[in-house]
Amino acid sequence: MILDSLGDYEDMPNWSESADVLFGAGLTLNPSELHGAITGMLGAGYAVDDEQQRDAALAVLEKALNVDLHGEVADFSRRTIAATYSAVCDTDFAFTPMLPEDDEPFEHRLMSLGRWASGFLTGFTQAITATARAGNPVDPGAAEALKDFAAIAQIDMATEENDESEHELEELVEYLRIAALNIVTDALNNGA
Hints:
The protein is mainly α. The protein has one domain: Four Helix Bundle (Hemerythrin (Met), subunit A) (Up-down Bundle), CATH 1.20.120. It has helices at 2-6, 15-24, 31-43, 51-65, 71-89, 106-130, 140-153, 163-190.
């Protein structure tokens, strides 16, 4: 089974672990943006079934995010690609956007949410270009979600933390989760 070779979604690093790897390598890349780009690639139907495809996916990520993924960061990215793929394929809907924990400052979580949405869009776009599908129409449901992602990527960072804004943040996270799952599932089922 393909998922057995990929590893379990439980292997998904959390935001803090990801930040340690990325920032430790001297990158200023927000882990949420990396995860969003990986998910966007999957949403465009980019195949990551085997090691060779995951290696090719690194080149797409490098272009999408304008970073150099090598050494430990490349290994970490491959693991995150595999774990993300496993999570979106999981029948228990284990997938969730990689965001800072709830005890992190509100502004930090809000900014990371916007970066995840932005990463999804750049990963999706770069994967479409890399697979020469740029001329193909995007499913209307996916197109609507992508517009919403673009709006979320421009989220107002000056939003004050209160009970209402916390609730709205939770709703946006859940929306991104479900919309991304739908886009990726459709791409996987239709062989994009």
